[in-house]
Amino acid sequence: MEIPRRRQLNDILWGLFLLSHPGPVLFHLIAVTLFALLAAWPHVSWSIIALVIAAHTAMQLSIAMLNDYCDRRVDAQGKPDKPIPRGLVLPREALVAGLLMVVLMLILLIPLPPLAWICSLAYLALGQGYNLGLKSTPLSGIVFALAMPLIPLYAFAGVGHSAAFLYWLVPVGFLLGVSLNLANSLPDVEQDAASGARTLAVVLGVRRSFVLSQVLIVLSAALIGGLAVLKIVYTLPLALITALMLTCLSVVVAVRLFSGSEMPVKRRKGYFYLVALTCIVLVGGWLIGVFA
């Protein structure tokens, strides 16, 4: 790893920005914001909403920064354009920044209800466990699957709203969590395989990972639709139908644009963003239908 002898302040700031994984973190930020607003509407306390969002953002930043710290040696070989191998950020700076984000998260959680603490700390434990080695095993998909339902549960708990139907988010979130994990892992399949990592995507391969991620989205949509048809969870028909139609459209687009065993590496990141957006639309539309 080559470290420049002299760095400018703008180099360090740019490196910290890249270290935060702005794209994936932004999707998490959008998701927790939508869930918190849905949970609080129409009696929105903006100060509580801001705390819920800020605490979750700090947690996501800590996971992202410590991910690059843990991967610094592997990235030096396979991803030299990342901020630590490029010398924009020193390893100890990434470590300190990640730990400071954990401290900030804990401070911001203080005014929130105990259940929000439990959800947030459980998510943090899963995320850091992923960083510390679980990502190199097939259990990486399980970590994502367990973490995803915690986002809406945390948002609802943070604003003091609870509902029995929220527990149906666990199986839906589990399915979508595995789908997200596969989509997120696709850009790194070859590098992970070369380094000896046995992630779920490496075990399945590119084509089967793509197919399974789409199947899990379809199963999630079918479960949500089934809960509504069987009147287990009442949902406003217009909101549910819109969410399901957009999800079907996303699946069709994904199959047309990204299917095939030779999906170029550069296009796989775009596929992850499509899957992430689809998950937000599906679950967000379902929740809008439930609470409208």
Plain-language structure description:
The protein is an all-alpha fold and 292 residues long. It is globular. The chain has 14 helices and no strands. Helix content is 74%, strand content 0%. The chain folds into two domains: 7-136, no CATH class; 163-292, UbiA prenyltransferase (Four Helix Bundle (Hemerythrin (Met), subunit A)).
The rough form would be described as: globular
End-to-end gap? 54 Å
Domain count: the total is: 2
- Tell me the strand percentage band: under 5%
Low-confidence stretches: none
Number of strands: 0
Helix-and-strand structural type: mainly alpha
Radius of gyration, CA atoms, in whole angstroms:
19 Å
Mean pLDDT over the residues:
87
Helical fraction equals over 70%
Biggest beta sheet attributes: none
What is the string of SSEs from the N terminus onward? HHHHHHHHHHHHHH
- Secondary structure tally, helices: 14
Structure in a nutshell:
The protein is an all-alpha fold and 292 residues long. It contains 14 helices and no strands.
Keywords:
mainly alpha; Four Helix Bundle (Hemerythrin (Met), subunit A); 2 domains; globular
